[in-house]
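Researcher: Let's do a round of design. I'm pasting the structure tokens now; please hold your answer until I've finished.
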């Protein structure tokens, strides 16, 4: 049976490598080779179409990876060397019957991806984070670190930014909490979004951004530019940079935060805090940049505070009480997201940071999701209001009451 790699070799033999080949000319060559192959062995029309697409993707796009990227139902792609490819659809992981036939071909695709993000990955520097043109997040780990490598993991993001109305329709958040958070964002509360891997932190931050007043100057800071903030005219997007081949030229999140403070921002949005940059983010929150947003990995709101303490210590040797006071004064609200057993993503808790007292940061739960059972394999439950917000000064100054309702509309 004729395989794509045999046809690939034939096309390579006929390609004129001394000049640039247009897409139309390449397509004609591919289908001419397919016609010749079908005269040697019967190929159905559907098989010809499939082979033609595979061959075009191999020469012009990201080889067989392109098929997974174009499938809008797939949210994650996991390539485990040349042995297997897995993908996530509807929250569940499936094994593909496709695989890269050689390590060299997979490495070519990897280099194509990282080069487009101005990144570098090789045996000396075998781990890299990059992104695709559509904003999808890519992580690459090469040999010798990955024993069965190369390993590629791609987190896909939808072409269109997800709105809060869509999250409500998916039952990821209630209308009441959505309206409350909208008021908090508009009133300038500093909000930190926590959650585990795949819980939807970036998606939720994007959705919250629709409530930022349109006359403000917003600066986003990320390792890889993934945020799709909605309808913000005065937007500056900054992206960190890895060291070059000589090991110089790196621009870190910390560098970008410090630079952003000189760019006259109204709000600073740090896509994700992972390390020592936490101290710079907290200093920004404590120097008048109300309404700033960020995300971080944690298992609960309390765990997020503990992780922030650890991350600050990574960047500066400060007494723990001083760090806790910085956190307590800088962050107003923590929104915790989670992924439940049925693979659904939900807002699990909204907590208010009350301040620092008796050697600890005081938290107060405002809303909490409570499970009630299961129906047709789906978890059922509701959000319960636990407390009214205590620090309501910003809400009042912005014309809202404790419920997040604008007084002008009452």
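Researcher: That's everything. Go ahead.
Model: Designed sequence:
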């Amino acid at each position: 049976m004729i395989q794509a790699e045999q046809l690939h070799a034939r096309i390579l033999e006929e390609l004129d490598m001394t000049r640039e080949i247009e897409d139309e000319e390449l397509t004609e060559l591919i289908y001419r080779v397919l016609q010749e192959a079908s005269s040697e062995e019967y190929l159905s029309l559907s098989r010809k179409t499939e082979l033609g697409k595979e061959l075009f993707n191999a020469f012009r796009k990201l080889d067989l990876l392109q098929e997974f990227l174009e499938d809008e139902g797939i949210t994650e792609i996991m390539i485990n060397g040349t042995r297997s490819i897995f993908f996530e659809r509807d929250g569940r992981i499936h094994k593909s019957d496709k695989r890269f036939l050689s390590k060299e071909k997979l490495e070519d695709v990897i280099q194509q991806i990282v080069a487009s993000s101005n990144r570098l990955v090789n045996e000396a520097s075998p781990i890299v984070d990059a992104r695709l043109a559509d904003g999808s997040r890519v992580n690459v780990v090469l040999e010798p670190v990955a024993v069965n490598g190369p390993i590629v993991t791609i987190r896909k993001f939808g072409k269109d930014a997800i709105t809060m109305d869509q999250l409500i329709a998916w039952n990821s958040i209630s209308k009441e909490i959505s309206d409350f958070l909208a008021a908090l964002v508009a009133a300038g509360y500093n909000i930190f979004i926590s959650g585990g891997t795949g819980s939807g932190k970036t998606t939720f931050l994007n959705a919250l951004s629709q409530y930022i007043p349109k006359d403000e100057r917003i600066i986003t800071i990320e390792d890889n530019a993934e945020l799709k903030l909605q309808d913000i005219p005065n937007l500056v997007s900054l992206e960190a940079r890895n060291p070059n081949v000589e090991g110089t030229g790196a621009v870190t999140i910390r560098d970008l935060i410090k630079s952003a403070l000189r760019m006259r921002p109204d709000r600073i949005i740090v896509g994700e805090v992972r390390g020592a940059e936490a101290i710079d983010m907290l200093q920004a929150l404590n120097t008048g940049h109300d309404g700033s947003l960020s995300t971080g990995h944690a298992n609960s709101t309390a765990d997020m505070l503990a992780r922030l303490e650890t991350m600050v210590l990574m960047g500066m040797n400060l007494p723990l009480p001083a760090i806790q006071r910085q956190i307590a004064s800088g962050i107003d609200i923590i929104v915790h997201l989670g992924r439940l057993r049925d693979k659904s993503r939900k807002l699990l808790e909204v907590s208010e940071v009350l301040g620092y007292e008796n050697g600890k940061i005081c938290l107060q739960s405002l809303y909490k999701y409570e499970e009630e059972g299961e129906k047709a394999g789906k978890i059922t439950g509701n959000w319960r209001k636990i407390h009214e917000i205590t620090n309501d000064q910003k809400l009042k100054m912005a014309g809202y009451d404790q419920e997040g309702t604008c007084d002008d509309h009452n």
